[in-house]
Amino acid sequence: MSNKAKKIFLALTIVVPFLIYCVVYYTPMLRNAPYKLKEFESIDFKWGMGNNLENSYNSATGEYQYVNSKDSVIKTNVKLRKDDILYLHSKANELGFWNFPDLLANSGTDLKTSNVPRYVMKFNYKKKSKTVIYLADYNEIPKLKGLAEQMKTLLTQSINDAEERYGKQSPSKN
Description:
Shape: elongated
Number of helices: 3
Strand order of the largest sheet: 4-3-2-1-6-7-5
CATH topology of the largest domain: Mago nashi protein
Number of strands: 7
Oligomer: single chain
Order of helices and strands: HEEEEHEEEH
CATH class of the largest domain: Alpha Beta
CATH architecture of the largest domain: 2-Layer Sandwich
CATH superfamily of the largest domain: Mago nashi
Largest sheet: 7 strands, mixed
């Protein structure tokens, strides 16, 4: 058998079946991904101390309400750009947000009486939504705490960046 024939035989017996296997195995997974960007509708993000979630943001309406350093409630309208939404969706996917448990709290924590910072992150899609409630004192799985903290920081940073962009625009451009 010539050297060229050996390479062709090797390709046909190992490489081609492997490629077919990959296509057959991964195509249904990718096609049936539960949280697709094209089905994305909005992000709801709320935070505050205990059950008092007085800070909130809704990307569908752009409603942004927060308590400033002087304990005044500020209500404004801030829209995220498509790039921001794409970035947040891809980071959520990268961080494994879809696999987070619905509640990140230490075992034995009573949600009704707990007075620690609480963050409710909700990604809404046409067919379903994913909500994660994260209590800042969570420490049972350090890696998961870090990922939740990172997701919270990304959401906060994106909203603040959008508010800063919006504030720099002149009123005639709004």
